[in-house]
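Materials and Methods. Structural model of ACOT1 thioesterase. The 422-residue sequence of ACOT1 thioesterase from Anthoscopus minutus was retrieved and submitted for structure prediction as follows.
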Amino acid sequence: MAPSIRLSPAARSLFDEPLAIAVQGLGPRQQVTLRTSLRDETGELFQASARYQAGDDGELDLARCPALPGGSFSGLEPMGLLWALQPQKPFWRLVKRDVLSPFLLQLEVFEGHGERPGRLLAQAQHERAFLRDGVRRVPVREGRIRATLFLPPGTGPFPGIIDLYGTGGGLPEYRACLLANHGFAVLALAFYSYEDLPKGMKEFHLEYFEEAVNYMLQHTQVEGPGIGLLGHSKGGDLCVSMASFLKGVTATALINGSVANVGAVLRYKDITIPPLGVNLKRIKVSKSGIADIVDALNNPLEGPDQQSFIPLEKAECCFLFIVGQDDHNWKSEFFALEGSKRLQAHGKEKPEIVCYPGAGHYIEPPFFPMCAASMHLLFGKPVMWGGEPKAHCEAQIDAWQRIQAFFRKHLRGKPSGTSSKL
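The predicted structure was written out as tokens:
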């Protein structure tokens, strides 16, 4: 019997779902190297490989067989061939631009454990999809809003969430659509560097974000009475500002966000919040040219920088802080703890803070490979994001479940207790 790769699900799975990988038809205790390859939409190649030894029966099940030293990872890692994918081009991050098409994953089995691949024994292809069947993708161009709404299958209404990314700009949709697969109505919202929105990050007007909140609150497919906010990095502090000043926000989840306004002036009606100061002299650059910017921002508790601290005590919502303790973009854990202190000092509920040792800045949906360093748009050079691949991957899986549980808990409309009968 010739060796073959057995996958479950067989041909297609959602990107945030586990994929079971096994090889059958090998010789007893045969040594093989498994390799995965994936090309992003720009054609850049990501690869991972691991060394294995089949069982006495010639079976190799990655859920039971540990990887041997010498590959991209070692130990019992059933999903290692996905989370360990690394770009062949330096400082390149895996992102999904078109959520309607899947990523195509190539799996290959080679003979032996040599530095160069041995004879090819088996190969397979697998689609890693972003949209579950029946999820609707609705481009939104209402008023000033530039966004995409994802609606789950079924009649609804569904708990509603606005999803914001960081300084990369544009309109990333992949996290929003993966969340919609789990029963949420999610609006991926662009806020700069997209279509006719401002090109740069000079100042933001909260009225724009208020339009998006009102759009969701009035949507027939969104279950009231309030909505949730999910933000990563710069998107996180924008979510804190939205929760602090706008009505209709019930739950706010931040992934390595800031409680100070960063990078741009924020305006709302007659209120102006200046950006937190930056000292470029505190940036460290390694021999390889990668910048560590973790100390660049000033302390929002000191001097004039206190003006940049967002008054989150005004918020009428619950908060969840997801923190990578090895975040090298900024001090996420410090921000979360200071936000918690401020809320409690004003008699507000203590927020939920979940800290992940060994997790870096880009805590993405499950099984996105960790990005250790990539180009930073504001600094114009590659910066270090932090993280250790295995710990970071585990953090992504856990955080994804916690974010969904948080929104399910706080966004389900509570019955008012009054009878609807006239």
